Amino acid sequence: LTICLPNGMTSAVYGPTSRRQDDWTLFCLAQFDEVLIELCQEFHGDNTLYCTYGDGILAVYWTCVWTRHEPTPGIPLTLAQEEENDNMKVVWESVEWLYTRAEKWWPLMNKKKAHMVKQHSDVVFGQFRVMFFLTNCKVAAKKGSTMPGTRIFACLPPTLEEYLSMA
After folding, report:
1. DSSP 8
2. What 8-state DSSP symbol labels residue 16?
């Protein structure tokens, strides 16, 4: 599970884990909702909470993660809900592009046998974290020019120097 920012950067990674656990369980274990609440409170005060879109598999009530709106039988979605769903589709596509790009840049991540968590957990965890760190470095060095999310949201990543001073 990852938290992807609109500037093309990955801000948090949880896993990889065994496929025996579902995404909802992993989301609870990662405590992403709690992390997002703390970030909102730290930077915007106790009264302002921002939300992010999540995969439909996380379709339960969370404070900072919402999923697409689904109509109730006999009650259509409002125009605002339809617009949110359309916007969510764009957000979701930019997240998928992030993974596609990272896998293209780091082909090792596509080798399934090398990533068997049961047999190589420490190595696999390290490889994934390094992949996301290096991807963030590359996005920062290119000023986001290769990431569709930066074009969609007009939100540039930090410079490479700024990013490395945060890491």
Report:
1. S
2. -
